[in-house]
Amino acid sequence: MKSSRREFLTSASAGLAGAALYHDRYAAALGLFQVSPQAAPVKLQAVTRTLEINGKSASVWGLLQPNGTQGLQSVYNQPFRVVLENKLTEPTAIHWHGLYPPNNEDGVPGVTQPVIRPNESSFYNFPVIPAGTHWMHSHEGLQEARLLSAPLIVHDSSDQSADVQQVIVFFRDFSFTPPNEIYSQLRAPKKAMAPMGKMGAKPDANDVNYDAYLANDRTLDDPDVVRVEKSGRVRLRIINGSSGTNYFVDLGSLTGELIATDGLPVKPIRASRFPLAIAQRIDVMVQIPPGGGSFPILALREASREQTGIFLATAGASITRTPVKGTTPTGLLTLDQESQLSAVTPLTTKPVDQTSVLRLQGNMAKYQWMINDIVFNVNNPGTEKSQVQVKMGQRVALRFVNETPMSHPMHLHGHAFEVVEINGRPLRGAMRDTILVPGNATVTVAFDANNPGLWFVHCHIIWHLEAGMAALVKYEA
Ligand SMILES: [Cu+2]
Predict the structure, then answer these.
(1) SS3 letters for 7-37?
(2) Who's near 6: CB < 8 A, 6+ residues apart?
(3) Is the domain 173-340 a CATH 2.60.40.420 member?
(4) What letter does residue 70 receive in the DSSP assignment?
(5) Nearest alpha carbon to residue 332 among 303, 300, 307, 304
(6) Residue 138 in contact with residue 148, Cβ under 8 Å?
(7) Distance (Å) from CA 439 to ligand 1 centroid
């Protein structure tokens, strides 16, 4: 069994430096690139493309290599030599979510670089770190909701040698309504409401009901089916690239071993269901039973019945039709599993030099979202004052105090942080770049100030970001 798969890998990956291979229709298009300093840079294009969603033609955007490959795969510490071409009719900028680039290559327009205008391009060249399951997405306006995002996988030497099949699962949400119309509806005047956080409202989720929830660009009406082997080991690289939807990843009859959060290794824990907030990633190892079969890998939308997913299937196994709505609504994501995690490579043990409190706030009547009473102007971010000042070499804690009943997935650019406190309870948790702060909860993370510049920290619900839930971390010169 093993040798036959190895042969398949070898033949199908000829010319791809013997790299891990992706078998399915979607991921077959995800080639690996390895570049040397002499080689021409990899070209990546922001383009429009067409998907069929719910039986209708959907014009969406995407990040493709000229051969149709979605996104990029690279190898740890290789040069990230990429020419990004804008083939859209609007300016754009792409953020490499999970990497630690130098500040001026981080892809935030108005903070770290100017926008890339239509038919112009931008060149990137920095060492690809850290290894792991990452992704890339537009950081301009609401473009991410048009699916201007893609996987960004950084392999390390261990995952290229292991006899493990790697499968990328990229979850996104999609609406036929253009993002600017969705946003206008969210901001339309509503009946008098007290500011959130003062109204004692019940916990809440899902500002936007999307038309479809996608796994590798498909719904469960016509899911992606990945061929696996009986008794095979599979590493699921699962990405939540949604603009406004948290999920529970559900492995059905399989049990998985969670081995990484946001690309960074954690001490393995076994479960069959894993919370996955917007912009987070998990790597989960599963073992296909000796008898084979087909195995759904689902994402269950938070606090509702919608679901999406892919199937792992051995040869000849039939796929059980799975509806796009489950029978029982899910609940809200919690930090119960998060509090059990610990990093394989935690921060060194040393005292925190400074703690910055970031109070997360909302005003539903105006649909404004704030940090420390400031509605951040994302369309002119360079004019905003930085709320967190750090010095190179400091250990910095960010305490997110959520004063709203809604959860916020908070992302810090350019760094990884350790989760060090949940609701007043200290822990040495996972390393991550995105943490869910549930409604009315307080979560503290700590990072080492080791990447100078001006960095975004923001809610990754795109509608909250657009409505002001962002701040800047600035290194003193
Ligand atoms: Cu938010």
Answers:
(1) HHHHHHCCCCCCCCCCCCCCHHHCCCCCCCC
(2) 163
(3) yes
(4) B
(5) 303
(6) yes
(7) 10
DSSP string, 164-206: -EEEEEEEEEE-SS-HHHHHHHHHS--S--PPTTSS-PPPB--
Q: Where are the domains of the chain?
A: 33-156, 173-340, 354-475
Identify the CATH number of the domain defined by range 354-475: 2.60.40.420
Asked if residue 41 lies in contact with residue 81, where contact means CB atoms within 8 angstroms, the answer is: yes
Average pLDDT, the chain: 90
* Ligand 1 center from residue 120 Cα (angstroms): 32
Per CATH, domain 33-156 is 2.60.40.420? yes
Q: In terms of pTM, does the model score above 0.85?
A: yes
Q: For residues 291 and 433, give the distance between their C-alpha atoms in angstroms, rounded to a whole number.
A: 38
Query: With 60 as the cut, is the pLDDT of residue 400 above it?
Result: yes
Q: How far does residue 332's CA lie from ligand 1's centre (Å)?
A: 15
- Ligand 1: distance of its center to the CA of 35 in Å? 37
Q: How many angstroms does the Cα of residue 246 sit away from the middle of ligand 1? A: 11
Interval 275-286: pLDDT, tens: 999 999 999 999
Radius of gyration of the chain (CA): 21
